[in-house]
Amino acid sequence: MNTQTSAPTQNQVGEKQGERPKTFVPNRKKTFNKQSRPMGKTQGNSKVKISFLGGIGEIGKNMTIFETENDIIVFDCGMTFADETMPGIELVIPDISYLRDKKEKIKAFVITHGHEDHIGALPFVLGEIKAPIYASRFTLALIENKMREYPRVKYKAVEVKPRQNLRIGDFSFEFIHVNHSIAGAMAVAITTPAGLILHTGDFKIDNTPINQATTDLKRIEEIGKKGVKLLMCECTNVERAGWSLSETHVQNQLEKAVFQDHANERLIVATFASNVYRMQEILSLAEKYNRKVAFTGRSMLNISQIAMKLGVLHYNRENVISIEDVKKYADNEVCILTTGSQGEQMSALTRMSNDNFAKFKLTTNDCVVFSSSPIPGNEKSVINVMNKLVHKGVGLVYDRLAEIHASGHGCQDEIGTIMKLAKPEYVLPVHGEYMHLEGFRKFAISQGFHDRQIVITDLGNQVQVTPTSVRKTGFVKVGAKLIDGNTFGDLNSPVMKDRKALSEDGFVIAVINISTKLGKVLNDPIIITRGLLYNHEMDFMLREIKTSLLVHLKNYDLHTIDVNELKKDLKKFLSNTISRKTKRKPLVLCTIVMN
Length: 595
Ligand SMILES: [Zn+2]
Ligand SMILES: [Zn+2]
Fold this sequence. Notes:
alpha/beta; 3 domains; binds zinc ion; 29% helix
């Protein structure tokens, strides 16, 4: 079983009036001696190294390593989804080779929030690295839900709260509430021997949020007054001027453009399952407009149940029905919350669009709402689903028609606000593709930062923070590990190369029967192909290939042939011949039967 405990706050740990608060040291056995180690004087060494194993030059698989001579903290542990260059692969996680000979130093995983690009690699990394996970209650609930699929991986979870301080080895962490498109998101102020580092995590500033407080700007301002050495700031939306939309605005738009304008239709709303604030908006509006709500799709069901259990969602229990009961209600009495906002192939909405959803069929009196925007890379899948829906005569409302979606990432004025309050000596953008990093550099200059104060990094860069400087000092090994069923793969492995060849050009198998005694080929070679030749060219091409092969075999003395050498040579010959004749490069396998 996994254990989950709450880390005591500073105030909870033996603090009396006037007494200096003691800091909490988790895992006392291991770090007991370090409790008396004064911060910033670790054997005269006050350097902190930051290594980027993921999340720079990409949006995904966030993983940053904070390291002193004694301790390492793994900050976020995310995954990314595979793209079309990785056939058969669904998930990609960071290569953690850099940590392999440093496992003893690793004291904690600190997780900012529960999005997959921040927690998705945990099941795989926790198998190798044993350190407690520190995260908010909602984040830990999502981690627990994920880890149920990996019952053999044990871990220890420690719940932390906003404004809580805790000491882990050479570091001291303070968690700060921020708005984001998920509950329980936090920025983290990290007191290190080299100075104070503020990491924003993923954030926006929503002055009128739903069901939560606004980003704790007061605390960020107070921390700014202490003197921030380095601000590590997410930059996903740095190219967008102004402010991101507020969730209250989104709710108002949903009310008007969906619940009022489509009052007589059945409503089917697709959104990110983890966006419990959006879920709340739909639940509240459904109640107001006398509609029952049904959830469908695995992650929508799982996360809504977690959010209800933790009290993150406020709703009337009688207003929620099961998806099976939708049929019992008139169209204007129900609202269905579904997965599939990204056009995912197996999602409930995609199945509905394919008439493949067991619970009901779509009709022309349905209105499908995309309260979301496609994550870069998913645009085509989303548009495919939308087209199918329109073709069926289903009504469609999406973010280009009405402001029914807000990004969870802050725009320029929000990033600028954090810069002004934190007043850092140095800034370093994270959570962005290269264009976002460059956009951040330009924006930071517009905010009065000098080029020498802006540290732009790349994947695998190591940055050194000292009391007087922040600069890039070297590289660490990085890469992508592909999750391939029960094993790990590499992008450059022969398996991936074969899969690519198979998926693009098919395969050819040649079986050649040779008698060494007679020194000749017995029978015609057998040539089998799949995914290479069209019916109309099949016979002709196979004959051509066979003839060329037989002519080529005349070059050998088949009495004394080395089978392995012959196999290699024939494979090369066949590859070249097929490529010349077909202009394609299939995977070629050659089998020689000796008699
Ligand atoms: Zn996020
Ligand atoms: Zn993220």
